Amino acid sequence: MSEADQDLGSEPESDWEKVQASPEFAELRRRLRVFVFPVSALFLLWYLLYVLLADYATGFMSTKLFGNITVGLVFGLLQFVSTFVITGLYVRYANRKLDPLADKIRHEVEGTER
């Protein structure tokens, strides 16, 4: 056995452990959570509303708006629209708030200039 194998308790922290313990990484995680948790909750509530209306308000969901287009069909299509909107908002948020901090952390770990 090598000395390093025998003395695992005194090994220096790996780079990823140092990064994980850094205040910059904690801030990155906080920024991610600030966006992801509320938006996920809102989307899940929106989807739950759609499912509950489809199950318990069939008269409302089958109301024709024009031609054969019903409220339920519009709500279903809006599920797709809301998914694309959320994706666009996340990309914009990540580009502005997450990526600059992630790049800073990456450059500190790699020891490269920005």
Topology:
Elements: H1 3-6, H2 15-21, H3 23-56, H4 58-61, E1 64-66, E2 69-70, H5 71-110
Antiparallel strand pairs: 1-2
Helix and strand content put the structural class at mainly alpha
Rounded radius of gyration (Å): 24 Å
Quantity of strands, as a count: 2
Helix proportion range:
over 70%
Termini, distance in Å? 42 Å
Transmembrane segments: 34-53, 65-91
Protein name: Clumping factor B
Keywords: Membrane, Transmembrane, Transmembrane helix
Pfam families: DUF485
Concise account of the structure shown:
The chain has about 110 residues and is mainly α. The protein has one domain. The protein contains five helices and two strands.
Annotation keywords:
transmembrane, 114 residues, mainly alpha, transmembrane helix, DUF485, membrane
Mind explaining what this structure looks like?
The chain has 114 residues and is mostly helical. It has one domain. It contains five helices and two strands. It has helices at 3-6, 15-21, 23-56, 58-61, 71-110; strands spanning 64-66, 69-70. Strands 1-2 form a two-stranded antiparallel sheet. Strand 1 (64-66) and strand 2 (69-70) form a beta hairpin. Helix 3 runs antiparallel to helix 5 (71-110). The radius of gyration is 24 Å and the shape is elongated. 1% of the residues are buried. The model has no long low-confidence stretch (mean pLDDT 88).
